[in-house]
Amino acid sequence: MQFFFTNFLSVSVKVGLSLLLLLFLPSCTPPDSTSELLQALQDAQGVLLGEALFRSELCLRNHPEDVNALLLNSYCIFVTATEPSQKAKALFNLDKATRLAPDSFTAWYYYGWALCENQQYREALPILEKAFELLPAGSSKKGEVLLLLSRCSSYNNLQDKGLKYLQPLRIHSPYNRWAEVYNNLGILALNRTDYPGAERSFKQALELEPNSPDLLQNLAVTYDLYLNDPIKAKKTYIQCLLALGNQEHLQTRLQIQNRLRQLTARQQSPTP
Description:
By secondary structure, this protein is mostly helical. It has a domain of 177 residues: Tetratricopeptide repeat domain (Serine Threonine Protein Phosphatase 5, Tetratricopeptide repeat, Alpha Horseshoe), CATH 1.25.40.10. It is built from 14 helices and no strands.
């Protein structure tokens, strides 16, 4: 079983993209493409990603190095991608945006975010550190950048960095109400073999997101493989299946069902 937890920022990032680019727009966008790009941004904000993709491509045909159009186009490609090659194209273009605008927080932030969403945590870490370095004073994105940095650090088992990035999130509102803060603490605890600490952190996260299949799976795996508590593991795996529903995540459902059968067979087998 794998630990995974990648979806908490999706809603805020989709809204935040348009807001960040609108702030960046006046100084970096050619005047003749401003209206087209503004319409593309409005489409993206309204989750009309196909329209936003089409309009941003029109902008790029006329101005292939327009950083705003490149960022928006890459974002739309990434979130609508159905093939790895499409995500690779988006990541390539986001990297290009950082080279075209090396002092742009927006470019570095969305490149790092996309790498995180693609679970390329090692590659994402220096990109997000650069974004944090360029973070405007008083930016509302500070918490999200710290959260992404903590995710990368946790999955790379960088204990000191992970705890450094998580500390301000744990003590300040509203960040201390974000479930991923405690999930990342749980991952760090597992990596340093503090299994009771991992259990506590995952439970704290579940208090905030009680029906999260990712968190339920993380807690179930902790009971199963680390705390050797098959009864709690089975109970939590079943809760995870209920949270997953019937239509999606087929591979995960099959893995959990197979593990439940193994645990049940082990409990029913006679003790030697």
